[in-house]
Amino acid sequence: MTTQATTVPAYAAPAAKAPLERTTIPRRAVGEHDVLIEIKYAGICHSDIHQARDGWGEGIFPMVPGHEIAGVVTETGPGVTAFAVGDRVGVGCMVDSCRVCDNCRAGFQQHCANGSVMTYNALDKNGEPTYGGYSTHIVVDEAFTVRIPDGLSLDVAAPLLCAGITVYSPLRHWNAGPGVKVAVVGLGGLGHMAVKIANALGAEVTVLSQSLRKKDDGLSLGARHYYATSDDATFEALAGTFDLIISTVSAPLPLDRFLGLLKTDGTMVNVGAPEEPVSLNLFSLIGGRKALAGSTIGGIPETQEMLDFCAEHGLGAEIEVIRADQVNEAYERVLRSDVRYRFVIDTATI
Asked: For this protein, what is the EC number (predicted)?
């Protein structure tokens, strides 16, 4: 790799719903404030599947998914001050933003008023498509690169760049901590990190899952209680129980039933993003002055805060490392909830 634009190996979906296949993609030259990262591990997020299959709208193809990136800096631009060659770094869901709007200036780049540039399936400021982490290298502005603390190995850190920050941000914003009862809906890639982080923050955590199949896992991850939502008795027993509910599932939920589990002034936050619309009876909010909210990832400062918190508390993701040529099989297994709890691609196998 040099300061010249180059091509690197990657796995890409050539068209919507097509199997991913090995290919090569362009990477820009290392600019003034860029770092070149040799990617070591890339997590597979459910949103990769949504986008590769046009579940959230028309995508840009060929598409190289992957926004849970962990690697090592191998080159820096002349103006880079935050990183040096050899540093362990991560890249999450964004690689740029306008940097001048109120949200960007406040460190909320995920809410950029002019639109963040996503790590893949987006166009950069030059109109060129962005390609994600299912590749051997990526060039990123230092302002959208975060440091992975020494206390976290790169493989278990990779999923934190999306799954970790996606649940950390709402848990912090809605003040999860001692004396707060938190319910996590779904024990998957997002949910298992929500349980770990909420428990580390001091909250009393309950998992609400379709069945009790993963109960032992949930309790070992830090949950105090575990209930099956397929059992109607769950909604009767837990009515008015929780201060905060974090829904991590990407399927439509019967929101009215779940809102009934909140205390007065409680909040249900959705971080899972179903492809289909959901329905709601507003009386479920009016009674008890409850709130239904949404949350996405965090900004760059909060993402760094999350990584430092996870390192301090020893909170890596629970992972299954796979070869790159297993990615299509992994997608099908994610859809069957057959992973505990995050697939991570060893990019040396690309």
From this structure: 1.1.1.2
The predicted-structure confidence for 152-176, as pLDDT tens digits, reads as follows: 999 999 999 999 999 999 999 999 9
Q: Residue 64's CB: how many other CB atoms inside 10 A?
A: 27
Q: Going along the chain, which residue ranges are E strands? A: 6-12, 21-27, 34-43, 69-76, 88-91, 94-96, 117-118, 137-141, 146-147, 181-185, 204-209, 225-228, 242-247, 262-270, 291-294, 319-322, 342-346
pTM for the model stands at 0.95
Q: 70 with 184: CB under 8 angstroms?
A: no
Give the integer Cα–Cα distance in Å for 235 and 241: 10
Q: Which domains does the chain have, with CATH numbers?
A: 6-162+299-349 (3.90.180.10), 164-294 (3.40.50.720)
Over residues 266-280, the pLDDT tens digits come to 999 999 988 889 999
Are 48 and 348 in contact by the 8 Å Cβ rule? The answer is no
| Residue of 293, 269, 107 whose CA lies nearest to 194 | 269
Measured CA to CA, the distance from residue 180 to residue 203 in angstroms comes to: 5
Q: How far is it, in rounded angstroms, from Cα 11 to Cα 44?
A: 12
* Helix, strand, or coil (residue 181): strand
What does the H/E/C string look like for 120-177? CCCECCCCCECCCCCECEEEEEHHHCEECCCCCCHHHHHHHHCHHHHHHHHHHHCCCC
Between CA 275 and CA 120 the distance in angstroms is: 19
Give me the sign of the Cα torsion angle 193, 194, 195, 201.
positive
Residue keyed to tokens 């929500």? 194
Is the distance from CB of 323 to CB of 204 less than 8 angstroms?
A: no
Cβ atoms of residues 315 and 199 within 8 Å? no
